[in-house]
Design a protein that fits this description.
The strands form 4 sheets. The chain has a 4-stranded antiparallel β-sheet with strand order 1-8-3-6. With about 750 residues, the protein is an alpha+beta fold.
């Protein structure tokens, strides 16, 4: 036995190390880190009690302040006997310390189980009421993300009430009472201590499961990224106000939700204040009056535009003859009269296929005519940018909203954001090149393949290479037709003509603008700061630089499909063969989905595909380390990985099942957890995945600073610092040499230098 002083902040006991000492806290506070939870040990508590049965420390221990401890040599339960025989007073002291610690952990377990049960019951009841309100208000309900899969918290092997009561009773026995009962029968004392440690470890394991359940599901009620039950009530209240309905019952339930959210202890204060403020800022009386006024205006407008035939206008602009016009009108009329536009029977599929063929034919003819005359009517702009063709099919109210949105299309345009019409115009003007097709061929590669197969001559190939209209046709036939269907979301039910059944809520709120896209992109980019960094070549032979690879941020191009969709896609990781070209992301111009969620998924796929493109044929070859090769190796051999716990391996197995054995989709799930949770200190991925993700998708400087003290990150951060110091040294030596030889520090080089300080 000896006295030990531990300085503040020291990580003096590490998990999985073989036990050599057992410590009794005399003074100070110790933090025991068990998986992702921590427990406070104060004077009279034992450090290492959790592992005394196996002789291995099962948790990490860190001194929160300067501590004084008594240390006792310990390797196995037999050592207790030697301790107690030399100092009999410690027999009862150790047992009382063990029981106190067990009661503390068990009370936390009970509290969390109650919290999980209350959360489940509250969410289920609130959602049932929400569904009832939607039916009463004739409003389409939107199920919060994760609600359908929400189940009661269940933990196999949960502790019984009698076990908790037993340890509580033990704490009530005095030292004298324990001495009288146990006497010097150290075998009984040791057995009681070991049993107490077992119960503590079981409770800690169950606490981890409850916390996992709560952390996994809490965003169903109130999330950092919305799409939650609280937002559903806010949208419901606004929709009911717009319909001039009684809001009293809806707002009453919303107040109960606010009360529960405030008191349950699951949400950070900043989030609560922000979301409650958004809810309270809604002036429902004003919304009612505005909706009434808009209805009156729409009535007047519909009366004045009663004779307008939008479909006729579009087909005339496209140059359709009367016979073809009549056929198109008949087909759309048949589609409109279908009892179920989402039906999957043969007749329904056939009509949707025919409309799809008609739509792209009309689109080509309309855009060809528009390229000669860029002063387009509002109706033609609605067709080109939103897929609108018919008022009856779109719904009069939606058609009027789209009519108004034409004046706001400038909000969808920037150097990196294009509507589909703007994108095709840019290709026609030679400002952009067409996208690659499904066989990964660019336009010139496609022409060469056509010549090789004898479908065109060499002369025709040369002529077509410079024919910008043919490039537009190629883009419509390949990227546009495929991406339009994919972003719509329901592949088997796709119809490119805008239909009112796809509208969820207010069309104007579904409108995707440059600001919304940039906000969503920057939310990911500010965490994963190297997301869009490409390694490009810098060359200046006049000043002694033939080839130097530097980092350059190249933001993607966003192309907005003319549809109402629920998905986004990473269409191309680079525009051509060169690394310094932007990726192409496709989104719908109208969506009711959470744009941040869609952007995060797209960025995850971009991370994977960009690495794959750069690595080429060796993208999954572990002898050439990269994000994709290391991740493939980790997933492929996870069963044999000794760094993964049984629980972690089970999670990987389940993730592979959900991803249908697609390694990229497993990475996407982990990347989403990485950005959304790990960056804020809520640990969701396993140790092996964490190391790979941090190596290739590191957090920014601020987040690294906030996580630097956590044991899970200390080794990773140390390796990262060493790696960055090497790179900083290299670029400093290079730039100093370059400037001395007469070179100028260009914005490109300045950006490359600043990259390492992010």
């Amino acid at each position: 036995m000896g006295m030990v002083k531990v300085p503040k902040g020291k990580w003096f006991v590490k998990k999985n190390e073989k036990m050599s000492q057992l410590y009794l806290v005399v003074q100070g506070k110790i933090q025991m880190i068990c998986e992702k939870n921590s427990y406070l040990l104060q004077s009279g508590n034992l450090v290492g009690l959790d592992g005394c049965k196996e002789g291995i420390y099962l948790n990490d221990y860190i001194a929160l302040e300067e501590c004084v401890l008594y240390s006792f040599p310990y390797e196995s339960p037999q050592d207790f006997k030697a301790i107690f025989e030399s100092q009999p007073k410690y027999a009862v002291a150790f047992l009382q310390a063990a029981v106190r610690q067990a009661v503390g952990v068990l009370e936390m377990y009970q509290k969390l189980v109650r919290q999980g049960q209350e959360f489940y019951t509250f969410c289920k009841n609130a959602y049932q009421q929400y569904s009832r309100f939607c039916q009463a208000c004739e409003i389409q309900e939107k199920m919060p993300q994760g609600m359908e899969a929400l189940e009661q918290p269940y933990m196999e092997g949960e502790l019984g009430e009698w076990e908790i009561a037993y340890f509580r009773e033990l704490t009530g026995i005095s030292s004298m009472g324990m001495e009288q009962f146990y006497g010097k029968n150290y075998t009984l004392v040791i057995g009681e201590i070991i049993r107490t440690a077992d119960v503590m470890n079981t409770a800690a394991h169950l606490i981890e499961k409850v916390l996992k359940y709560i952390n996994l599901n809490r965003e169903i009620l109130l999330g950092e990224h919305k799409s939650d039950l609280f937002e559903s009530y806010q949208v419901l209240a606004v929709a009911a106000a717009e319909k001039d309905m009684n809001l009293q019952e809806i707002l009453s339930v919303a107040e109960k939700m606010k009360k529960y959210i405030r008191t349950c202890g699951l949400y950070r204060e900043g989030l609560i204040i922000q979301r409650f403020q958004e809810f309270d800022d809604c002036d429902y009386e004003e919304i009612k009056q505005a909706a009434q006024k808009e209805r009156e205006m729409l009535d007047q407008q519909s009366q004045s535009d009663e004779g307008e035939d939008c479909l006729e206008h579009i087909l005339t602009f496209a140059g359709y003859e009367e016979e073809k016009k009549a056929h198109v009108k008949d087909v759309l009329s048949t589609y409109q009269k279908m009892e179920d536009a989402y039906s999957t029977d043969d007749a329904s599929r056939k009509i949707r296929r025919e409309i799809t063929t008609i739509f792209y034919d009309v689109y080509k003819k309309v855009i060809h005519a528009s390229l000669k005359d860029e002063k387009l009517s509002t109706i033609i702009s609605m067709f080109l940018n939103f897929g609108f063709m018919d008022v009856q099919l779109a719904g009069e109210e939606n058609a009027n909203d789209l009519y108004d949105l034409v004046d706001k299309l400038e909000q969808c345009r920037s150097d990196h954001v294009f509507t589909m019409y703007d994108w095709l115009q840019a290709i026609y003007k030679g400002e952009q090149e067409p996208s690659r097709n499904e066989f990964d061929l660019d336009y010139n590669g496609y022409l060469h393949e056509q010549k090789r197969m004898g479908r065109i001559t060499e002369k025709e190939e040369l002529l077509l290479r410079d024919d910008n209209w043919e490039k537009v046709v190629y883009e419509i036939d390949n990227m546009f037709s495929s991406a339009n269907r994919a972003t719509y979301g329901k592949l088997a039910l796709f119809c490119p003509v805008l239909n009112s059944i796809d509208v969820i809520g207010d069309v104007k709120k579904m409108f995707v603008t440059v600001e919304k896209l940039e906000n969503a992109m920057n939310a990911v980019r500010k965490i994963d700061f190297s997301l869009f960094n490409h390694e490009v070549m810098f060359s200046d032979p006049e000043h002694g630089v033939n080839k130097e690879m530097i980092d350059k941020e190249i933001l993607p191009n966003f192309i907005l499909m003319p549809n109402i969709g629920t998905r986004a896609m990473m269409w191309q990781e680079i525009a051509g063969l060169k690394r310094d070209t932007p990726a192409r992301f496709v989104f719908s111009i109208l969506t009711a989905e959470n744009l941040e969620d869609m952007m995060l998924t797209v960025c995850a796929r971009y991370r994977w595909e960009f690495c794959r493109k750069i690595q080429g044929m060796r993208w999954n070859d572990i002898t050439e380390p990269s994000l994709t090769s290391e991740y493939c190796d980790y997933i492929q051999f996870y069963r044999k990985n000794q760094n993964l716990s049984v629980d972690a391996k089970e999670k990987i197995k389940n993730a592979l099942m959900r991803a249908k054995n697609n390694y990229r989709e497993v990475f996407v799930m982990d990347y989403i957890s990485w950005i959304r949770y790990e960056s804020s200190g809520s640990f969701r991925v396993n140790k092996v995945a964490r190391e790979i993700l941090f190596r290739y998708c590191p957090f920014n400087k601020q987040i690294r600073g906030s996580l630097s003290e956590h044991p899970m990150y200390q080794d990773i951060f140390q390796k990262y610092r060493i790696q960055m110091e090497r790179k900083i040294r290299h670029i400093k030596i290079f730039t100093d040499k370059y400037i001395k030889s007469g070179g100028t520090l260009t914005p490109e080089l300045q950006e490359a230098m600043e990259f390492f300080d992010k």
